[in-house]
Amino acid sequence: QKEVEQNSGPLSVPEGAIASLNCTYSDRGSQSFFWYRQYSGKSPELIMFIYSNGDKEDGRFTAQLNKASQYVSLLIRDSQPSDSATYLCAVLGVGFNKFYFGSGTKLNVKP
Amino acid sequence: EAGVAQSPRYKIIEKRQSVAFWCNPISGHATLYWYQQILGQGPKLLIQFQNNGVVDDSQLPKDRFSAERLKGVDSTLKIQPAKLEDSAVYLCASSSGTSGAGYNEQFFGPGTRLTVL
């Protein structure tokens, strides 16, 4: 079983819509959760992190965490073509800052 | 603040040849990571250093891969001999935190794209 699982997509949404990206993880002891954006041919860049159950909002982005269900999601409101990228979910394992990355979900925002 | 530096940016080699990648993390960052990212997949951790000590190398193919961070600053990742399946982007990242910290943002370098023919 993979540590972090994501639907590979592609997820296609029209411009202005809400994009919903999902991630599940296997280590119940995980404490911190991250969403990275990766444009084609570029390195991952951090969008948001969350470590408390519930929602965390930052501009057009909202991260949602449900530790009981071992589930974390990212909502992108008012999606823009510039949001088209692969979104990687990462989980911080217990001890020594070991990160597990999912395989990523490719998002296409159509003008 | 300068970012994570990596070199070379691209490398093409024949199978069974050797190759080395270099990474200079952000100044003061104690933790350094090497990841392998195969096309269409997420980054896979190869090795993690805390200062100049290895804290995790469980996914490093030790028969052909080696890495060092001798002075706790920059690091080198070597592949010898390379195989076709080693074709990937090798990402270096650094973070400032220590064990047990709740949040440690990783900053990634631009990566080295390796093609093994």
Strand percentage of chain B lies at over 45%
Number of helices of chain B: 0
DSSP strand (E) fraction of chain A? over 45%
Structural class of chain B: mainly beta
Shape of chain A: globular
The largest inter-chain interface, given as chain pair and residues per side, is: A-B, 24 and 29 residues
Q: Average pLDDT value of chain A? A: 91
Average predicted confidence as pLDDT of chain B: 91
Got a strand count of chain B?
11
Overall helicity of chain B? under 10%
In helices, the fraction of residues of chain A equals under 10%
- Radius of gyration of chain B, in Å, reads 14 Å
How far from one another are the termini of chain A?
37 Å
Class per helix and strand makeup of chain A: mainly beta
Alpha-carbon Rg of chain A, integer: 13 Å
Secondary-structure element series of chain B: EEEEEEEEEEE
- SSE pattern of chain A, N- to C-terminal: EEEEEEEEEEE
Biggest sheet layout of chain A: 6 strands, mixed
